[in-house]
Amino acid sequence: MGTIVLDAVTKIYPAADGRSAEVVAVSDVGMTIADGEIICLVGPSGCGKSTVLNMIAGFESPSSGRITVSGKDIFGAGPDRMVVFQSPALFGWMTVWENITFGPRKRGVPKAQYEDDAHRFIKAVGLEDFSAHYPYQLSGGMRQRVQIARALTNQPEILLMDEPFGALDFQTRLLMQELLLKVWSEFKPTILFITHDVDEAIFLGDRVYVMSRRPGRLKEQFEVPFAKPRSIEMLTDTRFVTLKDKILHSIREELAR
Ligand SMILES: Nc1ncnc2c1ncn2[C@@H]1O[C@H](COP(=O)(O)OP(=O)(O)O)[C@@H](O)[C@H]1O
Ligand SMILES: [Mg+2]
Question: Which end of the chain is more exposed for a tag (fewer CB within 10 A), N or C?
Fold first, then answer.
């Protein structure tokens, strides 16, 4: 269902004005993300990671090449592909509950159909006592959890996450990583997860893709040799340490180029 295929995808942003040059953000990217797979995308800042994600989300379109989701071409954004950004984009005038149920309400889904799921996900992210709060009454980590519960309430086939835990403190981040794996095991969405944190990429991913410097290409991919469910004991396993070393080496090569 949620298979994502990129075939020779290139994205060129036009010059912002008459003097500056156009930007080739990504070049000739091919990738297949299988249904229910978690792929983590790492690479130097500015190499085009967000551009790849935004094209799959339907916010941007490729300059050439083709992207299909479940075998179909993409025309704009849709509820089958939920996006989670680093800074939570919540509606400030809506409560946590209203934010989380916004998608199904807007689509006219009857309350009976989304209510149970919304409750379940609010509980899963530990916010059941905060349903009636407004975003300004929450910490950054709590707001991020609202954003994730909102994405999940749509039960998307695909979750696109752009450094979603990047702004969180270490403890909250670990909790969120475990939470994400827990909800993944419930309905197994396909996940594309962008991160700067190689530990996080290995902890979450079935595979880790390393992108080259801009114009970003897929440089290397690494299989993660740990079955799910995963626990943080994995972080000290020698296979983890070896893999981390290889991935860091691959990224450092790009920084040095
Ligand atoms: N909407 C846009 N318009 C013009 N240039 C952009 C736009 N989005 C990104 N870029 C440029 O494309 C390149 C890749 O950006 P991005 O995909 O955000 O990289 P990353 O997420 O890996 O840091 C950068 O040089 C960036 O400045
Ligand atoms: Mg980015």
Answer: C
Mean pLDDT of 7-12: 97
Output the CA 241–ligand 1 centroid distance in Å: 31
Taking the domain 1-80+158-172+192-257, which CATH number applies?
A: 3.40.50.300
The domain spans of the chain are 1-80+158-172+192-257, 85-155
Its pTM stands at 0.93
**How far, in Å, from the CA of 195 to the mean position of ligand 1?**
15
Token pair, residue 135, equals: 């975003």
Q: What residues contact 212, with CB distance under 8 A and at least 6 apart?
A: 43, 47, 218, 219, 254
**Whole-number Å distance between alpha carbons of 149 and 126:** 10
| Strand partners for 211 | 218
Ligand nearest to the CA of 85: 2
Which residue CA neighbors atom 24 of ligand 1 most closely?
46
Mutate to test the pocket of ligand 1, among 29, 51, 161, 163 (most ligand atoms within 8 A of CB): 51
Distance 182 CA to ligand 1 centre (A): 32
What's the rounded Cα separation, in Å, for the pair 57 and 77?
6
Nearest to 136 by CA among 94, 104, 198: 94
Q: 158-172 pLDDT, tens per residue?
A: 999 999 998 888 888
